[in-house]
Structure formats: structure tokens, C-alpha cells
Design a protein that fits this description.
The chain is α/β, with parallel strands linked by helices. The chain contains 15 helices and 13 strands. The protein is elongated and about 65 Å long.
Length: 371
């Protein structure tokens, strides 16, 4: 069996695609990944060892502009490039996880009558998936709430699968995480990160948090700053009078490839509200303070965050309201109420779908049986 998988632009589109690709490969499938020229996927997919090809693509401006004609031309070029690659590879199925590159690839598959599936990670659907939803055989959703933002007449094609999460995240236990990260047992552990690129507004708010918990024997903090912000964060912490060498309960790092260790030890997460991170947090059943990125497309991160808030799994602070003291008060409110923290953890776990990858693989298999 053969599958073409496409999705790009951000880790939120790429990592679920890679999880599905790996699961299919382990079942003996041949995989071809189609990505955009110069996109993040070109690095990540090649690192995973998959057969990778590129097609031309450009973001489509939402308003009339000089760039519109250029973008349309590049997208049409990408469509014909994808059509050629699909004919050569002859896949049994094409799956898209979002991003502009998925548009021409999935449309080409549809035009060639190849069975196709898209996966939507967010509560508020992305622009590409909204366009593709009318053309594909199945629309896999991370959040059931996303149904409300698609046309009523295509809702028979929806299946709520969850968002694929790496097995290492699901399987790593707390003892392993504590050992690997050199953390102490018996302390509440706060994990802070802003996504793959970091988040300066969170980094700034954390300065007051570090001052507040200096010399604490009850709390320890792991903060992943993002590589581009790392040196600035260290300097800001020093300027704030916090001596990191004397506060061993603070772990400030630029990037953590093995996020499974951090999730395994976290009692509370402070995070943006990207779909992949939320899938990982809920799969592990961790309470969260979510600070949605205000400039995300269609403000989709706030939709994600509000969905968890509504389900009692998270508290939300809008970026414009984020200050050190606000964050401290929210952290203290949660850490001082063990019953509330446990309830949020249970609610978070109930939203997680550890079986998401298997759900999507089963969808693919069922779809092909019907063909």
C-alpha cells in the first residue's frame, strides 16, 4: 500500500503528519511526503528519513492585492506538480494535515479520484482545510467543537479522532522524567513554554515569577525559552536580581527535543494554545494556564484555549492581560488548591486522545475497504 502525506508551514501541521506517516510505515506502507519549497517540513521530514518531494506553493492573501495573482499562479503550478507526482507514485490514499502546501496536493488527488482525507487540528479550522473539506472523502477532527465551523451539508464526513501524539510522550513516566531532567521529588513542577519558537510575552511575565519563587522549597520550574530568545531571557533574569546558580530549582533551556521528560514531571503547564501542544498536554492529563498567541490565523489559538477552559481543564489569560503578577496569582491559586488541580487534571485527561494515531490509521483502512 502507498500513501502521500502532506502538510507544512508549522510544527502543528507537520508533527501529526509525521506520526501518521510513521504508523503507516510500520505497517508496511510506502510513504511519499509532499512539502513546500523552503518550508519547515523540508527539514523535519528529511530528518525522519521519509521520501520527500517539494511542490511550489504560496500563501493566498485574504484580500485583493498585487500578491494575489502571483500566489494564484504558484498554487496552480503546485497543483500540476502535485498531479504529476501523484500519477508517478500512484498512492492508494492522500492525507493532508493543513498548511498551504496541502491545498494543491489534496486538490490534485481529488481531481484524480484518489481517496483523500484531511485532518484539522484546531477548534477553528484553517483556511486550507475549509477549502478542501468539500472535496475530500473524510474530515478527521481533533476537537468535536470544530464541526460548528464547517458547512452543515458535509458534516456526515466528520470523524473526531484527536490529534496524533508521539508514543514517547504517552509512555514516559514521572520517575524517568525527574531523573533525566535532574529534578527533585516532592516539589510541584511547572512547565513553561511558548511553542517551538518561544514567546517573549511569556518570557517577560516569568521574570516576576522567578523573583517570587526564589529559594522556594515547594516549586520547581522548567522553562523552554525558544532558541532565539534564550540568551536574552538569561540576561533579563540576571538583571532582575535572580541568581540562577543559587536557584537550582529553575531549569532554563532554549529547546528540549525530548519533551516527553518535561510532560512526565509537570504538575502544571503554562503554554500558548497551539493544537499539537494541547494534544500532548491533554494526552498526559496536565492542568494548564493557556495564553493564546493573539496573532495566530483567525485567532484560532483562543478558540483552542476557550474550549479547554469550558471543559474545566485550563485557565486562560489573554496576551494583552499578561503581567507577572497576574501569572503569579493564577499559579498560586491553582497550586494551593489540590482538589482543583486534581479535577483539572481529570478533565484534561478526559479530553486527551492517546489513540488518535490509531484512529486515523483505522479511518484510512476503512476508507480503502469501501473503494
Amino acid at each position: 500500500m502507498k500513501a502521500i502525506i502532506t502538510g507544512g508551514g508549522t510544527g502543528g501541521h507537520i508533527y501529526p503528519a509525521l506520526a501518521i506517516a510513521r504508523a503507516l510505515e510500520e505497517r508496511g506502507w510506502k510513504i511519499l511526503y509532499l512539502g513546500s519549497k523552503g518550508g519547515l517540513e523540508s527539514t523535519l521530514v528529511r530528518e525522519e528519513g521519509f521520501n520527500y518531494q517539494e511542490v511550489q506553493v504560496a500563501p493566498l492573501p485574504r484580500k485583493l492585492s498585487v500578491k494575489l495573482m502571483s500566489s494564484v499562479f504558484k498554487t496552480m503550478l503546485g497543483f500540476f506538480q502535485a498531479r504529476k507526482l501523484i500519477k508517478e507514485f500512484q498512492p492508494d490514499v492522500v492525507l493532508g494535515t493543513g498548511g498551504f502546501v496541502a491545498g494543491p496536493v489534496v486538490l490534485a488527488a481529488s481531481a484524480l479520484k484518489i481517496p483523500s482525507i484531511i485532518h484539522e487540528q484546531n477548534v477553528y479550522p484553517g483556511f486550507t482545510n475549509k477549502l478542501l473539506a468539500r472535496k475530500v472523502d473524510i474530515i478527521a477532527l481533533n476537537f468535536a467543537a470544530a464541526r460548528d465551523y464547517f458547512p452543515e451539508k458535509i458534516k456526515a464526513r466528520f470523524v473526531v479522532t484527536g490529534n496524533p501524539v508521539r508514543q514517547a510522550i504517552l509512555n514516559t513516566d514521572k520517575e524517568t522524567g525527574l531523573e533525566k531532567l535532574s529534578l527533585e521529588r516532592g516539589k510541584k513542577t511547572i512547565l513553561v513554554f511558548g511553542g517551538s519558537q518561544g514567546a517573549m510575552s511569556i518570557n517577560r511575565a516569568m521574570l516576576e515569577v522567578y523573583k517570587y519563587y526564589t529559594e522556594s522549597n515547594k516549586v520547581q520550574i522548567i522553562q523552554i525559552t525558544g532558541e532565539k530568545n534564550y540568551q536574552q531571557v538569561l540576561q533579563d533574569i540576571e538583571d532582575a536580581g535572580v541568581k540562577l546558580k543559587e536557584n537550582r530549582h529553575y531549569k532554563i533551556i532554549p529547546y528540549l527535543r525530548e519533551m516527553e521528560y518535561a510532560y512526565a514531571v509537570a504538575d502544571l503547564v503554562v503554554y500558548r494554545a497551539g493544537a499539537t501542544g494541547i494534544a500532548e498536554i491533554t494526552a498526559k492529563g496536565i492542568p494548564a494556564i493557556l495564553i493564546p498567541y493573539p496573532y495566530a490565523a483567525e485567532n484560532h489559538q483562543e478558540y483552542n484555549a476557550r474550549n479547554l477552559e469550558k471543559q474545566g481543564a485550563a485557565e486562560v489569560i489573554l496576551d494583552r492581560d499578561l503581567k507577572g503578577q497576574v501569572l503569579i496569582e493564577k499559579i498560586e491559586e491553582l497550586l494551593s488548591n489540590e482538589d482543583r488541580l486534581k479535577e483539572m487534571a481529570q478533565n484534561s485527561k478526559s479530553l486527551g486522545k492517546a489513540e488518535a494515531t490509531e484512529n486515523i490509521v483505522s479511518l484510512i483502512q476503512d476508507l480503502l475497504k469501501k473503494e
